[in-house]
Amino acid sequence: MIKIIIERRIMPGLEEEYEQAAREAMRQSLGANGFFGGESLVEQHHSDRRLMITKWRDLRAWKEWYNSDARLHAMQRVQPLLTEEEKVTIYEPAY
Fold it and tell me: Which terminus of the chain, N or C, has fewer Cβ atoms within 10 Å?
């Protein structure tokens, strides 16, 4: 299993719109092959900083989702709400 950490910065005043778009993107990922779940976090005292942590069966499953039409469509709603490109980091078990 791998974990994907996605860091995003939201344009000021668009946090609620971002929440709706991010929830829809997470709903879309529920049907993705190899997706085990995820959570969305907001940095304390910085409502423009968001972190998504998702769990995937393996790197192949993540790449399939990352390059899918469903994610591309979901990101068309999310991307305009960001102040910069999202940062994606892939983690795997250390053992």
Answer: C
